[in-house]
Amino acid sequence: MNGREEVEEGEGEVTMQVVLSIKKATHSSSRPRASAFLLLNNYSYTPLISPSPPHQQFVFFVHSATGTLQDTTPLTNNTSSARQAVVYFSEWFKREKSHLLDQVFKILHDDHHSAALSQLGLRLNESFVLQVLSYGKAKNDVLSCLKFFDWAGHQHGFRHTLATFHAIFNILSRAKLMPIMLKFLDNELRLKFLSHKFTFYSTLVMGYALAGKPMFALHLFGKMRFVGLDLDDYTYHILLNALVEESCYEAVDVVAKQIALRGCQGNATHPIILKSFCKRKLFDQAEAYLRKALLKDGGEKGHDFGFGYSLAILVDAFCKNGQLDKASQLIDELRKLGSVPMKPAYDMWLRNLVQAGKIDGALEFLLSMKSSENYVPEIFRYNTLLCRLLREDRLGDAIDLLVEMIENQIPPDMVTMNAALCFFCKAGMVDVALELYNSKSEFGLSPNGMAYNYLINALLGNESTGEAYRVLKSSMDQEYFPGRKTFTILADALCREGKLDKMKELVLFSLQRNFIPNDSIYDRLISALCRARRVEDGYLIHGELTRFNKVAKSTTYAELISGLGKIHKGDVAARLLLEMQEKGHEATRPLFRTVIRYLCATENAETKFCKLLDMQLSLHEPNSHIYKCFIDGAGHAKKPDLGRHVYEMMYGSGIKVDLSSDILMLKCYLKSGRISDALNFFDILHHRRRTIGRKVYNTMIVGLCRVNKVDLALDYFRKMQNEGYRPSIQCFEVLVNLLCSIKRYDLAIDLTHELEKVGRPITPFIGNTFLLYSLRSKELYDAWVQYREAHDKLPCNLSILGQLISTFSGRVAMHQEIGDLEMEIQRCFPVNVYTFNILLSTISKRDIDYACEMFSRMQFRGYEPNQGTYGILINGLSENKRTAEAERLRDEMFRKGLIQVNVSNN
Which class for 270: exposed (0-12), middle (13-18), buried (19 or more C-beta within 10 A)? Predict the structure, then answer.
């Protein structure tokens, strides 16, 4: 045995192993999308006979795969096995490929095709032109067919015939390009460039008949008869069929009589007449006509395929009318006669079984007829059944059907190749599908929409986002746009993986081809770009969005406005705010606050502020909401004079200045640190309103605390109590926090005691504050001891808080278990995420395993960890050199959006 034979023998065995694995994977797996190659390693194949050429082995395998093959050692090279599967299917795809026709159509795709076609030295005749047009029709390449037809018609020594005209008209009709067809016919009718009147009129009659205008064709036929011309048999039947299709039954009878008078009635006429009966639902007359025609010919002409097609038409009519049983009986009856070619009827019966959803019946019929009559359906019947099997995820039956087609040496067409590609995607064999796709130019595969969608989704499921992006971009280059769902899934994947450049390119690429993605894709992309601090790119996409009259979500506007402000483009942010309102979105106070804050950071801030206010007042009816938004915005921008200007404008406009407006103006002074102005304004309010309410006092106390004016805040706190108002919980919280920050722990503890006296519980904020400062300083514990000694009896919660301060300050050893310590805190105040963060910070320094246990406990109890929680645990794990666990937590943070860049993957 020479080297080449050894290689072929080896390839044959591997091919059988691959296909066996595919069959086992698809037949045995209960999950259709499970990867077949995951199962591939569990199966192998030991030949029961001596090695034979690859295709024979393949066929042998199909007949033997029901259980007679033995499982031996598993395959070890998945890549090699996948490659063998690719080679095998590629060879099948290449069968019956005409390199000359491929070259012709490649030339036709260029603009300067005439000279290149002439250089090929083609021998033009009717047969070759029909072959080229048939090839183009199979490829659905209408434009190239038209180019070739036009080129051939201008070549010396060749003139188009009725057959070639019929072929091009059929292509145009099938592609529903009736306007082009009618324009051509009208030109022919006007120019009359055909020299022979018979050819001229016959072509026009044929063309108008195929273009769906049979009555005009009939009119031209009348003109022919008037000048002594007649149609040939071929065109007569085309005209008759067109009249039937358009339900012109009176004209059908007239033309049928003409055909009979000329002696042309026969097997070509029978299918058309039967179709006429069936369209009118005259099924009994149709059946009687067929039986009479068969009886008249005495079986002598029964073997002509005209009767086979007649039977097929009647079978199809019965099935469409819900009479499948009658269609089956008719097939059985005429099959027993043996005088009618049954293949057309079998093809039609098979198609209707599939369309009726009787897939098992179709498979049984196919197997039965193949074994008894060696029946092999046409390629398009195989395709119909194959696509239905794939749609229903019957992958085992689908691979059986593909194998049968290979065994029967049926050259695949475009639909078959696309279906095979879809099969490998659905079977989880993405590597095979991708390599077949990458090799598509070798066998002229032009993926259809279903194949593109399956391949892209399979690649995304395989986490091959880059490859999915490449395939989608290639599909768009071919002027195919996948379904919006597929496009959205890919865009989401790119956004999730942070591949914003590709996502941006994909969106702009689609817009250049007038493919408008869903609005949600724009919003996700703009949001992702803003979060990645690429606001200019986000603004560019937004510009494209408005160019196509798309309206972004209000949240997208908000993110863009915030991002533009951060890069010192407050003017643009202000324009976007107005645009947002013009598009029907409501601008919230926080959004106004953001815009005004950034606008006030630009040059000529006062002028721009007033201009924006004027535009808002002209856009809306003047109302207190607009004025309040601008007072609030001025406060956050630390421009209290602008805020006071708007406040005074409210008085001048006649709008009632209510309590909330007063509070906003007071905050405006406090946020700017203008304490004296705030005190003066407070006095003005006191004089104007006679009494200062609880809300104004709370605002004053909280505002003074936030600018670290603790003594003033305490003064107003006492004044508020003296006037009979109860301070809010927020007042207690901010005062306690500020007092702890300046180490006035005794007052902080006293305020907490006071909170308990009025029957209010210790809040999580106050409790967490004491725990945090216990960790930071020992002085809090000392202050607590002094306070406890100065008071005979303390409330229970305050005593527990003192014990916690002792524990967290380190004065008392932490002997409690995690659960016990958590329960102790729970007795004092409700725990929250920040409580757990303090516990984790304490425990992680001592025992990282203990900390991990607490992390799991908090998640189990429904507390969602924040960025601080993860940071504490990651630092603890990193210090203990547990890098893998730390990276896993970083990945989790990235998935939850707590960080924008996954550091562990960089």
Answer: buried
pLDDT-derived band at 185, boundaries 50, 70, 90? low
CB-side neighbour CA atoms (13 Å) of 139: 23
Q: Within a 10 A sphere around the Cβ of 276, how many other Cβ atoms?
A: 25
Distance CA 150, CA 172 (A): 14
Tell me the C-alpha to C-alpha distance, in Å, between residue 780 and each of 484, 692, 800, 824: 62, 36, 15, 19
Tens digits of per-residue pLDDT, 740-757? Answer: 999 999 999 999 999 988
SS (H, E, C) 721-732: HHCCCCCCHHHH
Give yes or no for a contact between 802 and 775, defined as CB atoms under 8 angstroms apart: no
Encoded amino acid at 150, one letter: D
Taking residues 421-428, what's their average pLDDT?
87
Q: Which of 23-37, 43-57, 154-168, 718-732 is predicted least confidently?
A: 43-57
Cα of first residue to Cα of last residue in the chain, in angstroms, is: 53
Greatest alpha-carbon pair distance for the chain in Å reads 131
Q: What is the mean pLDDT of the chain?
A: 80
Percent of the chain topping pLDDT 70: 84
pTM: 0.59
pLDDT at 225: 77
350 neighbors 382 (Cβ within 8 angstroms): no
**Inter-CA distances, 355 with 259, 350, 653, Å:** 35, 9, 73
Q: 697 falls in which pLDDT band (50, 70, 90)?
A: very high
The pair of structure tokens assigned to 96 is: 């019956």
Are the beta carbons of 872 and 841 closer than 8 angstroms? yes
Q: Which residues of 42-58 are buried (b: 16+ CB within 10 A; e: fewer)?
A: ebbbebeeebbebbebb
What are the pLDDT digits (tens) for 790-835?
888 888 889 999 989 988 887 665 555 556 778 888 999 999 999 9
- Distance between CA 200 and CA 184 in Å, rounded? 13
3-state helix, strand, coil in the chain (%, to 5): 70, 0, 30
Closest CA to 669 of 701, 697, 644, 695: 644
Q: Distances in Å between the alpha carbon of 338 and those of 299, 342, 372?
A: 9, 9, 14
Whole-Å CA distances, 351 to 316, 375, 380, 385: 9, 14, 9, 8
List the structure tokens of 443.
Answer: 């066998």
Dump pLDDT digits (tens) for 59-100: 333 333 323 233 333 333 355 566 777 777 877 887 655 667
- pLDDT for res 531: 84
φ, ψ dihedrals at 487, nearest 5°: -60, -45
From the CB of residue 811, how many other CB atoms can be counted at a distance below 10 Å?
A: 14
pLDDT exceeds 90 at position 480: no
In b/e form, how buried is each residue of 241-264, taking b as 16+ CB within 10 angstroms? bbbbbeebeebbeebbebbeeeeb
CA–CA dist 213, 238 (Å, integer) = 12
**Least confident residue range of 77-91, 659-673, 724-738:** 77-91
Task: Tell whether the torsion through CA atoms of 801, 806, 810 and 816 is positive or negative.
Answer: negative
| DSSP structural state of residue 557 | H
Q: Are 387 and 415 in contact (CB under 8 A)?
A: yes
Least reliable range by pLDDT among 94-108, 265-279, 322-336: 94-108
Q: Report, in angstroms and rounded to the nearest whole number, the Rg of the chain calculated over CA atoms.
A: 42
Ordered DSSP codes for 571-602: HHHHHHHHHHHHTTPPPPHHHHHHHHHHHTTS
How far apart (Å, rounded) are the C-alpha atoms in residues 896 and 854?
20
Residue 228 DSSP class: T
What is the 3-state secondary structure of 108-170?
Answer: HCCCCHHHHHHHCCCCCCHHHHHHHHHHHHHCCCHHHHHHHHHHHHCCCCCCCCHHHHHHHHH
DSSP-assigned letter for residue 904: G
